[in-house]
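Section 3.1 - Work completed
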Amino acid sequence: KLNTTLIKVDDAYQAFTKLLEFYNEYKNQKTGIDKNTIISDSAKLGDHLYLGAFSYIGDNVTIGNHVKIYPNCYIGDNVIIKDNTVLYSGVKVYFDSEIGENCTIHAGTVIGSDGFGFAPTASGAYKTIPQIGNVIVEDNVDIGANTTIDRATLGSTIIRMGVKLDNLVQIAHNVEIGKNTVIASQSGIAGSTKVGENCMIGGQVAVSGHLTIGDNVKISGKSGVAKSIKENSVVRGIPAMDYNTYNKSYVFFRKLPEIVQELRKNTSTKQ
């Protein structure tokens, strides 16, 4: 016989999540600055920090309170990291980047590397276009492992409040991701595209550059987006189209060999 205590809640999933948060906070109560950390004399450090071994904190860096930076992280010059943010091992944050409060950035992520900017020359070779902007990550953003967010050519690449990025996501230069948008693994957003708020983008989605994706858009996994999408749309396919239109088209696509055979048969009969 099993004696248990049952606790009734309005939302079991949210309650379970809260319990996991409490456990995670308890498990990750790390504080202190390891003696093998390199910290610039001009850096400004908050209270109750954890700075792991072999991390590097550059010139004029500002780090808020209760920040945790795990071993082997690189924080470039003039970076700002606000309160309660966690950077796991091996995160690289290039110069001039800004990271908000309550963010979690997982191992191997690179923030602020050069955007993919090259200009063709008369000889056919490509000349690098200097990328002198930065990256701004607002509050309550989660970024998965080995994700890359490129700095802007000019201005800022912006990840708005509440965005959730999976592992292995590529965000190119001058992209803006609207608040509370989620993007699954292996998706890529090309340069200067603006993604709206509350969007859901599946895994392995490719979005071309200089597009506008409206608010509340849903893009199914493996879709290829080559033109702008209006708000509240649900799209699928390569190239991406309306979800219902794609499903209707797919019925005929599966029967395409039979349809072609029938067409050929009818054509030969008429001749």
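Second construct:
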Amino acid sequence: MSRVPSGATVGDLPTADFFDVESLLSAGERQKLADLREFLAKEIAPHAGEWWDAAEFPSHILPALAALELSTPAQRGYSHLFAGLVIAEMTRVDTSIATFFLVHHDLFVESLHAFGSEEQRERLLADASALRITGAFALTEPLHGSDVAGGMQTRARRIPGTDGRPDRWVLNGQKRWIGNGTFCDYMLVWARDEDDRAVRGFIVDATLPGVSRSRIEHKIALRTVQNADLTFTDVELDEADRFSSITSFEDTNELLRGSRIMVAWQAVGQQLAAFDVARQYAIERHQFGRPLASFQLIQQQLVDMLGNAVASMSMMVRLAGLQEAGAADMPQVALAKSYISARMRETVAMGRSILGGNGILSDYRMARIFADAEAIFTYEGSFEINSLIVGRSITGVSSIV
């Protein structure tokens, strides 16, 4: 029967990167990815389960994470493929840490790059990139998720300046499911202008009077991520805190497209994690006097898991190439997110099955991988919404009211 050769370890076997995608990176990018892996193995992997069980965010790791200098990799001159593999590799070790990174860097910091004025970037960008301050992206509302573009209820009212003083704004409304929302220093808040109903973006200091935030409790996924309910009650903002280049929701499409790509990379990383854990368990766990890996049905499941992961990664490699060419459009991104998240669900379910009863214990990583996959399946456009975006593209008919 097949087994790991005497004296060998799982580390001697082929990796989940079965087609050697990493070989497409530059030497510098490969070294940077190796540095990230070393950090994750030392600082994150040994503690991720404790943080997940306790639903606590490890703020103490932020200086060491910042020292890797991985904030918005594409802005630093790295390839889009490398940027995606960073998110996949973080997810492979801990989905919650990857989600924090994505929210802060790929939404908040990228927003400063894309929409911030020279003064706003000068004021916030260096500290945000170095994680001396943290940010959140406040878009979703209690009653509006997929339809928030048209249904947004948070309101911004302009107060004209007098005596040469600039305009001010008053913000009222609620946001929900805001990652990093309980502890962030600043948040990018989206609101509808009461005068012309255009969507505006504001940088809001989380300590301002009228800002209230509370943690969403009882989650079964991404427990380390601190999702918040936010309430804004007559919050006064300076004109200098408005993103003047945002005049409609359409202005955010590039930003949201980029973050959706990164969540698709998370779905890749989740599959890599599931394969890693399931294979090791199948080799080390014995039943009927033999390792699980010696049974044909277990090998078939592992092969199917690997096939899903490799197919998903290959799709993302091509999408990264389209990004480099500036040619990745939303239907392509939506197909990647919907297709890969569906394959991810299959993969983590097979992995959980291989672990049997141990697969439902958070002591074993597979249970956390399985649970966290449900969040990835849903956020940055649910599977259904992304499928309908693709359906509209290939038929010319919209089924979204």
